[in-house]
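Subject: complex prediction, re-run

Hi both,

The earlier run crashed halfway through, so I resubmitted it with identical inputs.
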Amino acid sequence: MHQLELRKQVCQANQALASSGLVRWTSGNASGRDPATGEIVIKPSGVLFDDLTPEKMVVLDASGHVIDGDLKPSVDSTSHLYVYQNMPQVHGVVHTHSQYATGFAVAGRDLPISTTTHACLFGARIPCSGLASIGETEIGREIVRLIGDGSAVLLRNHGVFTVGKSAWDALKYAVYAEESAEASFLAHQLTGEIPELDSTFVAGCRSMYLNDYGQEKENNSNY
Amino acid sequence: MHQLELRKQVCQANQALASSGLVRWTSGNASGRDPATGEIVIKPSGVLFDDLTPEKMVVLDASGHVIDGDLKPSVDSTSHLYVYQNMPQVHGVVHTHSQYATGFAVAGRDLPISTTTHACLFGARIPCSGLASIGETEIGREIVRLIGDGSAVLLRNHGVFTVGKSAWDALKYAVYAEESAEASFLAHQLTGEIPELDSTFVAGCRSMYLNDYGQEKENNSNY
Amino acid sequence: MHQLELRKQVCQANQALASSGLVRWTSGNASGRDPATGEIVIKPSGVLFDDLTPEKMVVLDASGHVIDGDLKPSVDSTSHLYVYQNMPQVHGVVHTHSQYATGFAVAGRDLPISTTTHACLFGARIPCSGLASIGETEIGREIVRLIGDGSAVLLRNHGVFTVGKSAWDALKYAVYAEESAEASFLAHQLTGEIPELDSTFVAGCRSMYLNDYGQEKENNSNY
Amino acid sequence: MHQLELRKQVCQANQALASSGLVRWTSGNASGRDPATGEIVIKPSGVLFDDLTPEKMVVLDASGHVIDGDLKPSVDSTSHLYVYQNMPQVHGVVHTHSQYATGFAVAGRDLPISTTTHACLFGARIPCSGLASIGETEIGREIVRLIGDGSAVLLRNHGVFTVGKSAWDALKYAVYAEESAEASFLAHQLTGEIPELDSTFVAGCRSMYLNDYGQEKENNSNY
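This time it finished cleanly. Structure:
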């Protein structure tokens, strides 16, 4: 893939974070990794989503050094990098402070499997991490420790990280983590608990999703 | 009706699902059936709402075989099909994961008749189904079992299905199911219960709606 | 005022109901009365907000007979008419099902004076009516019985009516009734009660608003 | 800075208040002060955000007299002025009734440090003031009394004030005060409490933000 193409894809995913209502101001970010070269493209730090262009994206090598771009990369770059280094099949990472998912993260609660969509997309609970500092490897370690073969982790008192086959694919999981969190929140408010699906039913949903959903089966597997 | 016209109508209803905020990413769908030919037009599986065009819609015959279109139909097609086969007067079906209605579906609670608008449009509670797998006839069976002469069913831990005289008509019920769910949710949070209208008052609302509302009386009856 | 000018104003107020997020699909409506001729212009029944044009507005005489327009007027016309007939200084009426205000209406609770903005705009609680049927004089009677020298009434299990010097002016009160309801709802969820401002402080807010707010003092008085 | 430039900046910040969903109708306002001349530019009173232009902004001298502009300034001008007079390094002030922050303000509760973003941006709780009348110095006094070296204060039963190096900078704090309030609200609803970060962790977040976040370090300090 030409580097400009990856810049465009990552820029588009960052803009879609904003248009999907998952982020505010300059918080949250998407990155992508080129499977061929290992180069990582990520949002610049502290730039408004409306002001992003492909040219403003920052290019890092596999060790995290800036190899192209005039701006500083996101302070979450070390977290993205840790994930890429420890999950070779991941080629996209997204981070948001989406509202309901962050509500669960502040409460320190896993996101239960309360909807068929959660079961289809994630196949398991979305775990909530321990507290982790921004800017070093703590966040990356928590993600890798908890994500298993899933695609999302809640970061305690912080927000959400999702991983995928591309920035756009990771965005998909960020959208559905928020949908799941909202449904669980509302049910909790109505009943004081969150009715969860049993493992057999979840496995059936997950299998249907992996095998039958969408136009191309390979789009559905995690990464 | 020319097939292209039905494709346009169904495409428009799917796009309105997104612009109305009732769906996210690729989840949810609308379909329509041609009363003359029995052909069913439905959203393709796993396609973003922004990317839909009339040409991308999938055409099924009355048995559910794809007879036109390059894409795979929604995994919910079997559910739509079951409804069409068992409810001959229905010519539109809509499925969403709209937020508050899904909250009630996760909680496993019927939507009570808490507003005059609910009484006008539905005339009865919106029942919540048992758990049903996606992709086979279970969902369709639950809808047909529970819908009575109503227009909407909550799917346990899943979302909402509505039916109507056309895709656009079914969309109307999806919008109002969400309005009703939100009003009931908020009242529940204020008082711990959901004050419900009595049957005589409901019947009066329903009669007013059927006879006096809108420009053409025949638009108001369910299907 | 030329009739076309009133049609334009009322159409614009109806469209602003939709763009402000206070209404869905075809529910809710705005009307205006010409002070000179007594003619009332109102939204047609069951028409989507996106489809409204000044030409589609319906003109009624002071007795409620349609005197111009090809469409049937809103089923709420009798309610608007009752208000105009009994409140000679009112020249605009708005009806919505805005979310939080309707939540209070379903709960059967008055909107307390919990914010300075509520105190400024309304100067008193927004009362919640008894149950009233749509399409006859019941709703209008409840509004006139309860509104005092205020500008808004919650309709039990239904929604909100506001009145003003014009359709646009009534829209202002509909926006602020919803703002007040949301603030009160959220505080209630945090504390189990809704802290209310005392009457002396409310009177100070109201006086400041009536005398100092905006560009022209006469815009602030109710009607 | 040329006065027209400040008018443009302040107008843009006011329009961004509306597009960010932090304000409704004519409530809320942004102002900026020219560091060179001491002139203050502020929103005119009671004007809809859609109708604002740089020309409609009102220019005040350091004593609060209107020195340019055809319209009356915001009734909150005395509050903005008090802040500018007592906080010489502040050159932007924003006031909103954003939903969740106002919910806490009605409840009379400080905004706790429940998220890493809150810790980064504010470094401390956002305090809730006592009750203060609009239009005199009471609000300004409460802000100055409580703000410490922070950037935001909740106004009891009213809304939020934030301060910054410019109108746009103050807007940033208004956006994040609302994000923090929403996360804390949702966690409170799930658990009955709001888990708060400890002071060492908060100090680490704040230090990272001040030293490493964004493109230019000097953008991050408060004012």
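The helical segments of chain B are 3-19, 77-86, 99-107, 116-121, 138-146, 167-191, 199-212.

- K.
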